[in-house]
Specification:
The complex is a heterodimer of chains A (333) and B (131).
Chain A (H helix, E strand, L loop, with lengths): L10 H10 L8 H7 L3 E11 L2 E7 L4 H10 L4 E3 L4 H13 L4 E5 L18 E9 L2 E5 L7 E4 H8 L11 E3 L9 H18 L7 H12 L8 H15 L4 H20 L3 H27 L7 H27 L4
Antiparallel strand pairs in A: 1-2, 3-8, 4-5, 4-8, 5-6, 6-7
Helix pairs in contact in A: 1-2, 2-9, 6-11, 7-11, 8-9, 8-10, 9-10, 10-11
Chain B lengths: L18 E6 L5 E6 L3 H26 L5 H8 L4 H8 L3 H7 L2 H5 L3 H11 L11
Antiparallel strand pairs in B: 1-2
Helix pairs in contact in B: 1-2, 3-4
The chains are: A alpha+beta (333), B mainly alpha (131).
Chain lengths: 333, 131
């Protein structure tokens, strides 16, 4: 089977864009991301990763697949397995039918990922589109080129244990996607995003979560010479820049979605919003830049200064998502 | 981020891979650009790795001194901590914590050692060694 590899910024939206391509639907990665309303912010101090809180700049894993499934009526089928043998056999059967299959895997056990980036993160997504003997042909959206992965390694990665254990999860569309009414889909997606960012009852999710994170950063103790504070700040930036696509990266990608939606529906007001979101993304990058300089002690380690930056971003994002909602409401059909 | 501002500083932790990022081109449209990575990413990734390596080195020292079991060293070397290893091996945390003691680890049944080795992705014999 011929399969067109897509180099993408984020694994899940890249997988969905790639999976729909053989079905004759040329959906770009930003469109997949935006239509699934996948942008968000969440600060979850009770979920600990190596003793540090979970900070997410997007909806939880699986949101892109499920969001697109709902909007485009793809009839996605999800399967998980108890035994690795059954999971691999099912994958082989699907590949035998000529299907490209999306997989959820751990990133730690994938041999082609650079060793320095292998951490125990169980919600990585990739596409398998073929098999040659004991090697699988893998289209991993975050890699520039298609790669190969040995059966043993893939099995390990699919059946890794721990938080968000994939249990061999695989998924594929069962229906031919119908290019729907872009305006209706777009409006619904914008509504959902505005709702999550502004009106989630839990104050740790959405723009209010950024404020909570700022408060924690402000209170970081420097009593141990700044070791713990420096690790905490580094963790925020790592969640932002290195894991997946990051805070700034997701903002830029969503801006690309707004532009592409504007082009498809001829609704120019979205263009102006895209430009504003690019600015917010730049602010996130500047935050990361300042944080990295503090970690390296090129400038003094001052958590309150970083907290102030976060607060400024929160104010901007709040205004932005309010205007996004107003723009949606003003959208005449 | 403008297209010409996309970081190309060469993040060594990417090992030659290029990341896809979205940046504004000359015409004002966002498009996908391959990035060699930025120094910022490299700093924070290295920081996290250094922390894990420091833990592993410390655990190794303590294992050699007979204060900890080799399991602790292998746990950090696999970039895990106690909750993670407990989940991966399917054991309760207090049991894993107990197995970090050298006296307890020495009397561990082979089946449990196999289970740890499987979770850590190493051979059961390698679990006893400190290389």
């Amino acid at each position: 089977m011929r399969f067109e590899h897509l180099h993408a910024s984020h694994c899940e939206s890249g997988v969905m864009a790639g999976l729909l391509r053989p079905h004759g639907m040329a959906l770009s990665e930003p469109m997949a991301f935006g239509l699934a309303s996948a942008i968000a912010f969440a600060y979850l101090p009770f979920v600990r990763l190596n003793g540090l809180p979970l900070i997410a700049y997007r909806m939880p894993p699986g949101a892109v697949v499920r969001g697109l499934d709902r909007g485009l009526e793809l009839g996605m089928r999800f399967e998980t397995f108890r035994s690795p043998a059954a999971g691999m056999a099912r994958l082989d059967a699907l590949l035998g039918e000529g299907k490209a299959v999306g997989l959820q895997t751990s990133i730690y056990w994938l041999p082609y990922i650079p060793p320095d980036l292998r951490f125990h993160f169980n919600a990585h997504n990739l596409i398998v589109y073929g098999r040659e003997g004991d090697e699988y042909l893998v289209s991993d959206p975050v890699a520039e080129m298609p790669v190969r992965c040995a059966r043993r390694d893939l099995e390990r990665a699919r059946f890794a244990k721990g938080a968000l254990a994939p249990k061999g999860r695989l998924y594929y569309p069962t229906r031919q996607p119908t290019p729907g009414n872009w305006q209706r889909l777009g409006r619904r997606a914008l509504a959902r995003t505005a709702h999550v960012m502004l009106h989630t009852p839990l104050p740790l999710v959405g723009v209010r979560g950024i404020g909570w994170l700022a408060r924690t950063v402000e209170r970081l103790s420097l009593r141990d010479g700044g070791r713990a504070a420096s690790l905490y700040i580094g963790h925020i930036v790592r969640m932002q820049e290195e894991i997946g696509t990051g805070g700034a990266g997701f903002r830029f990608m969503y801006a690309a979605f707004l532009q592409q939606l504007a082009a498809r529906t001829c609704y120019g007001a979205l263009e102006a919003l895209a430009a504003r979101l690019v600015e917010i993304g730049d602010d996130w990058q500047q935050f990361a830049f300042a944080a990295a300089k503090m970690i390296k002690r090129r400038i003094a380690l001052e958590p309150p200064a970083l907290a102030a930056r976060l607060r400024a971003i929160a104010v901007k994002e709040k205004r932005f998502f309010h205007d996004l909602n107003d723009t949606r409401l003003a959208w005449k059909s | 981020m403008r297209e010409r501002d996309v970081p190309q500083e060469g993040n060594a932790t990417l090992a030659g891979y290029r990341k896809a990022v979205y940046a504004v081109g000359e015409d004002g449209q966002l498009r996908i650009v391959a990035s060699r990575g930025s120094e910022v990413e490299e700093i924070v990734t290295r920081q996290a790795l250094a922390e894990l390596e420091a833990c592993a080195a410390e655990a190794r020292r303590r294992a050699l001194a007979g204060l900890a079991s080799p399991l602790e060293y292998h746990m950090y070397r696999a970039r895990m901590d106690v909750p993670m290893l407990a989940q991966a091996a399917g054991l309760w945390r207090w049991r894993v914590r107990r197995h970090l003691k050298p006296q307890v680890f020495a009397r561990l049944p082979l089946a449990l050692k196999r289970r740890y080795a499987e979770a850590l992705g190493i051979a059961p014999e390698a679990l006893e060694r400190l290389e």
